[in-house]
Specification:
Elements: E1 2-5, H1 23-26, H2 38-53, E2 60-65, H3 71-79, E3 83-89, H4 92-101, E4 110-115, H5 118-124, E5 130-136, H6 144-157, E6 158-169, H7 174-192, H8 198-210, H9 220-230, E7 233-241, E8 244-250
Parallel strand pairs: 1-4, 2-3, 2-5, 3-4, 5-6
Antiparallel strand pairs: 6-8, 7-8
């Protein structure tokens, strides 16, 4: 395993918030307690990559945007044999957790963990350089202008017939989204109050409410429209549970 540090700079006009730091980074493992569908969600992301790889007879080059503590990275490494994986995250604390969580794969798979904001790293890669771009619970953290720039850059770095797999938090129509938000907020309190994780609960609730801000909220219909306008085809929803959904999309050949 290689570990590189990329300096920020080229995307300075479109800042990416450091949204997972302090207790949210140090206790990130607690997030799993309030998402009973997390394994199913992560499994579907890996399944999409597996389905694509079955049609290829070469080693696939994959980039994961926003690897966090390595949960999705580990799922990909355990599910797919012939891949060359680059996992990128802006938070040094999260990369440290990923290094620890992925230690078992150091001698078994080819992967790199890189500290960088998404757009800076994507800018550093040439056109048509990845077979697959994967992201899980990341793009919704970006403000809308930055997110659109990231999606355009993802399209640029994908090879013809390349695949985008984005498992994320999407806002549907107002009523359905509001109902899902209430259910999820209740799960936060049910998970963290009994174990006295008050500070984590407070910061995670605030974090999720910030996701609802007009400059950040990732509406499902807008996401699909953006992908289509950029040039993606075969935009398909393959999983949905409350706010979490997995979308795949292809770059034309």
């Amino acid at each position: 395993m290689k570990n590189k540090l990329y300096q920020l700079g080229s995307s300075g006009s479109l800042p990416r918030d450091h949204r997972y730091k302090n207790i949210l980074a140090n206790e990130y493992r607690l997030i799993k307690l309030s998402y009973p569908h997390i394994d199913e969600f992560q499994g579907k992301v890996a399944e999409c990559v597996q389905a694509y790889s079955r049609n290829e007879e070469k080693k696939l080059r994959i980039i994961e945007i926003g690897c966090g503590d390595g949960l999705t990275t580990g799922t990909l490494l355990s599910s797919c044999n012939d891949i060359d994986l680059i996992a990128v995250d802006i938070e040094p604390e999260m990369i440290k957790l990923a290094e620890k969580n992925l230690a078992e794969w150091r001698d078994r798979r080819t992967f790199e963990l890189i500290i960088s904001d998404a757009l800076t790293y994507l800018y550093s890669e040439p056109d048509c350089s990845f077979d697959i771009v994967v992201s899980a619970w990341t793009l919704h953290n970006f403000n809308k202008s930055y997110r659109l720039s990231v999606l355009n850059s993802i399209y640029r770095v994908l090879k013809p017939n390349g695949l985008l797999v984005n498992g994320d938090k999407y806002a549907r129509n107002d009523v359905t989204h509001h109902e899902s938000l209430i259910i999820q907020m209740k799960r936060f309190f049910d998970a963290y109050l009994p174990i006295a994780q008050y500070e984590f609960l407070r910061d995670f609730v605030i974090h999720n409410l910030e996701d609802e801000s007009p400059e950040r909220i990732m509406r499902e219909n807008e996401f699909i429209q953006d992908l289509s306008a950029i040039g993606f085809i075969n935009i398909t929803n393959v999983y949905r549970e409350l706010m979490e959904a997995v979308y795949i999309a292809s770059k034309p050949g």
